[in-house]
Write a structure and sequence with these properties.
Structural class: mainly alpha
Radius of gyration: 22 Å
Strand content: under 5%
Number of strands: 2
Distance between the termini: 41 Å
Largest sheet: 2 strands, antiparallel
Number of helices: 20
Length: 396
């Protein structure tokens, strides 16, 4: 048994189960009060990312009337779902964003209606099933699949009812198939990434994988798909002219309402996550694009590339935490393939993943998180290079 527990995947499963049992006991002892600590602090707001979005696209004026932050494709998705809601319910929907927030916990709360609740549950069932199937295709382990499927990011996304669940499925499909020999699957992977961009914007950074593999034509087609997924849905709403107001709300240009988290709290100085985004982005471009003798100047492992891309993508939103942690499943699966057993060289990276992928994560990743990962990255990379005899020993 001791030997088995040294295996990376077995240690993750063990820690996940211990954490899960501990959380269940903590919730029982606190009489459920710790739900507000583990998840969104407002107990009346559970799932409202989903239900509010259905309301705010019902009039087909999401940007002009409600100043929403979601991209046009995400609005189209929620508009299609809203078609399953009876008109008798829609007639009572509030006309402003503040009023929408005001119906939470009242008799008009959409979560109390049969149609809306069934649509929500079907969304959760289908997306969680897709996530589990894709993870299992990589792990071939039901227990490991269970632990990853219900890790911190997924649990937080379920609590919020956030479309990031679907976004993750699309991004995962891209990472898995963009380099597939089957041309249909590789093209569908490009479409999937473009759709993920259309839902949440920041998965576009995973397109760096196309540049890494010198797939410039594929990158161009992916950009074209992304443009189409951004422009075409606007014809269902206020038209292409609504794109500029939407961008103003997203980036807080000119003090518009609905300023995104990326713009909040920036004050007069430059936000730390923007500085880190620029530094990390430059480092990744060097690592992926610059080569010597046909090999990358910085020979990062595949899991390290995926981790840095994942973290870079989340910095676009002004930080990383909560349901965004779900994306770290992708690099962790690559890490499990590279590091079958734990040792002193990969332990730091493993522990960083545990911060993200145990059943309960953290609300916001900090400097210490990324700094710790860089230390682990350097240690494992140095050990790998030394093992390949590319770094001379001190006795030479």
């Amino acid at each position: 048994m001791k030997q088995k527990l040294k295996e990376t995947k077995h240690m993750y499963i063990l820690l996940s189960l211990i954490t899960l049992v501990s959380v269940v006991f903590a919730l029982l002892i606190s009489n459920g009060k710790l739900f507000q600590v583990f998840f969104f602090p407002d107990p009346d707001d559970t799932g409202m990312d989903f239900f509010n979005s259905m309301i705010e696209v019902g009039t087909r004026r999401p940007y002009d009337q409600y100043h929403v932050l979601y991209p046009p494709l995400a609005n189209l998705f929620f508009y299609i779902l809203s078609l399953f809601i009876p008109d008798s319910l829609k007639s009572a929907w509030p006309a402003t964003h503040d009023a929408v927030k005001g119906i939470v916990g009242t008799r008009d709360d959409l979560r109390l209606t049969q149609s809306a609740l069934m649509v929500f549950l079907l969304f959760l069932i289908l997306t969680l099933f897709a996530i589990a199937v894709m993870i299992h295709s990589c792990t071939h382990s039901y227990l490991l699949t269970f632990c990853l499927t219900f890790s911190a990011g997924t649990m937080s996304a379920i609590e919020r009812g956030n479309v990031i669940l679907l976004t993750f499925v699309l991004t995962f499909y891209f990472v898995k198939h963009y380099n597939d020999e089957n041309k249909l699957k590789s093209e569908l992977a490009l479409i999937a990434l473009a759709a993920a961009f259309g839902l949440k914007l920041y998965p576009c950074i995973f397109g760096l994988l196309l540049l890494k593999d010198r797939k410039f034509a594929a990158a161009g087609r992916c950009i074209l798909y992304a443009v189409l997924f951004t422009v075409l849905p606007t014809f269902v709403f206020e038209g292409p002219s609504s794109i500029l107001p939407w961008l103003k709300y997203v980036f807080g240009i000119g003090g518009s309402e609905g300023t995104s988290s990326a713009a909040e709290g920036s004050g007069s100085g430059i936000p730390w996550y923007l500085v880190l985004f620029l530094i990390l982005g430059l480092f990744l471009l060097i690592a992926l694009m610059i080569r010597r003798n046909g090999k990358p100047v910085i020979p990062l492992k595949n899991s390290q590339i995926l981790f840095l891309i994942t973290y870079l993508s989340l910095l676009i939103g002004g930080g990383a935490g909560g349901y965004n942690l779900i994306f770290f499943i992708v690099p962790f699966l690559a890490f499990l393939q590279e590091e079958e057993t734990l040792n002193r060289y990969n332990l730091i990276e493993f522990l960083v993943y545990m911060i993200c992928l145990l059943p309960v994560g953290i609300n916001q990743l900090s400097y210490l998180f990324f700094g710790s990962y860089l230390v682990g990255l350097v240690i494992r990379l140095y050990h790998s290079l030394k093992a390949e005899n590319t770094i001379p020993s001190s006795g030479e």
